[in-house]
Write a structure and sequence with these properties.
The chain is an alpha/beta fold and about 475 residues long. The protein contains 19 helices and eleven strands. It folds into three domains: about 10-190, 3-Layer(aba) Sandwich (Rossmann fold); about 205-370, Rossmann fold; about 375-460, no CATH class. The protein has helices spanning about 35-40, 45-55, 75-80, 95-110, 125-130, 135-145, 150-165, 175-190, 205-215, 235-245, 260-265, 270-280, 290-305, 320-325, 375-385, 395-405, 410-420, 425-435, 445-455; strands spanning about 30-35, 60, 85-90, 115-120, 120, 170, 225-230, 255, 310, 335-340, 365-370. Strands 1, 2, 3, 4, 5 and 6 form a six-stranded parallel beta sheet that branches. The longest helix is centred in the N-terminal third of the chain and has 16 residues, at about 95-110.
Length: about 475
């Protein structure tokens, strides 16, 4: 906040790039409030770039406002759109009228919305200084009383004392890098980050999620590859999505790449690399010149020091993995790569001395095999789709059990067949059961084809 300015439109920075203009309607996640001459070129600059580096959209106001100018325009929208306010209290903070006005508006906004909060940083000051229990801030406030309305200064005092009671971070006896990492971890936890879409009806998945969490949380800070495998339609992607949603906010960046096998069949590896980088770096544009090799190099260079969560869905060839997450040292300590696949034979996990260009050691892989649903959960899942109820009506109980038995407890088959039978006649149900009699139990995709053909076009868009 050290330069004079003519307009607020020129003072905004965000995770979309370096210092630049704020686009109308842009929304931010974090608003940094600080006195420029105290911290702009040191702590605040490091904090800002660290937040941007993990994909958080940040607003920082780099210039001193003219005395007497009210908060308005783009700056007002930036404050009101932000979810987390981070005031950095330095020794001369209270000398800045603009800092005090921003702080007062932040307190007002957070008091009106349950999803907004203030996380203060005490930079070379104590909370008691900000609570006005010492002369440090009181001297500046007394000077302000001679120039500004008494009620306005009183509002500044109330805002200072209120925020000072919030648990924040002190800077004494701590290095900037250490405290910034702590702040980032807290902010990432507080923010509601992107979630992967899940089906409306989830049944019997909690035990699977718990098992995966136990395998991931083994206390190791090494990069780990976790492989979820099983037949098509068994629920691998759904399980990966549920885990992704539960733990993504623990990582500095994350990406969920769907249908890799199909994308590769259409020659879309470069697009997958671009998506991976864009999601982890939160939209930053990186030109990889339509070259897979350049994409590999950028992934390695930009992510080697970041703790990331990466889900690679439906992988069936080594070349797919090698171009997206080929080596563990591409990612920072604690990173997790979750792979879903129908077959694990392409992975170098059976013979430790097996020659392979893949540099990851076999002990980096953890394998989780998904099996068919048990009859209890299968009946409940089928009922949710066939009847929009937890359990079938009494007169449909026997035929429901028969259909479940013939589908082999495969979640996708239960969902699709159940949806195709919703609001259909008993005769239609019996015809469906007869069709299933002609399909061997192991021919899963033929079963799904039967059920899919019975759906109306609008039903075929079932997620």
């Amino acid at each position: 906040m050290n330069r004079k300015r003519d307009s607020l439109e020129k003072v905004t920075t965000s995770a979309c790039g370096d210092d630049g203009d704020l686009q109308l309607g842009a929304k931010f996640e974090v608003f940094l409030n600080f006195r420029g001459p105290d911290t702009r070129l040191n702590f605040t600059d490091c904090l800002y770039h660290s937040l941007v580096g993990v994909g958080i959209r940040v607003f920082r106001d780099n210039e001193e406002i003219r005395k007497g100018e009210k908060i308005g325009g783009e700056l007002l929208r930036a404050i009101e759109s932000s979810k987390i306010y981070v005031p950095i209290f330095s020794r001369n903070y209270a000398s800045s009228v603009w800092c005090l006005r921003e702080l007062t508006h932040m307190v007002e906004c957070s008091s009106k919305a349950s999803d907004k909060l203030i996380l203060p940083i005490f930079y070379n000051v104590n909370p008691d200084d900000v609570k006005l229990k010492t002369r440090l801030y009181l001297d500046d406030l007394e000077k302000h009383e001679k120039k500004f309305m008494r009620d306005e200064v009183l509002g500044w005092k109330e805002a200072l004392t209120e925020v000072a009671t919030v648990k924040g971070w002190g800077m004494k006896d701590k290095g900037h890098g250490e405290i910034i990492n702590t702040i980032i971890d807290e902010i990432l936890t507080k923010l509601t980050k992107r979630k992967s879409n899940l089906p409306d009806h989830l049944v019997g998945i909690d035990d699977h999620v718990e098992a995966i969490m136990d395998m991931l949380n083994d206390g190791s800070h090494d990069v780990r590859y976790l492989v979820i495998h099983g037949m098509g339609g068994i629920g691998k992607t759904t399980l990966a999505s549920a885990v992704f949603n539960q733990i993504s906010n623990q990582f500095q960046g994350y990406s969920f790449l769907l249908d890799i096998r199909e994308s590769m069949q259409h020659g879309r590896m470069v697009e997958l690399q671009k998506q991976l980088l864009s999601e982890i770096l939160q939209g930053r544009s990186l030109d990889i010149h339509n070259s897979v090799d350049v994409g590999i190099e950028i992934i390695r260079e930009r992510l080697h020091d970041k703790k990331v969560l990466l889900v690679l869905d439906d992988v069936d060839k080594w070349e797919q993995l090698s171009k997206l997450a080929g080596k563990s040292d591409w990612f920072g300590p604690g990173s997790k790569i979750i792979i879903t696949t129908r077959d694990i034979n392409f992975l170098p996990i059976k013979e430790e001395d097996k020659e392979s260009s893949f540099q990851a050691h076999s002990q980096e892989f953890k394998i989780y095999e998904m099996i068919e649903m048990d009859p209890f959960h299968a009946l409940r899942l089928f009922s949710k789709h066939a009847f929009r109820m937890d359990w079938p009506p009494h007169d449909y109980d026997d035929i429901s059990h028969e259909i479940i038995r013939k589908t082999g407890g495969l979640p996708l088959a239960l969902e699709v067949i159940g949806s195709s039978l919703y609001c259909k006649s008993k005769k239609f149900w019996k015809d469906t059961l007869k069709k299933l009699d002609f399909v061997p139990k192991q021919e899963v995709f033929n079963k799904l084809k039967i059920s899919y053909d019975m759906l109306e076009h609008r039903q075929r868009d079932l997620p």
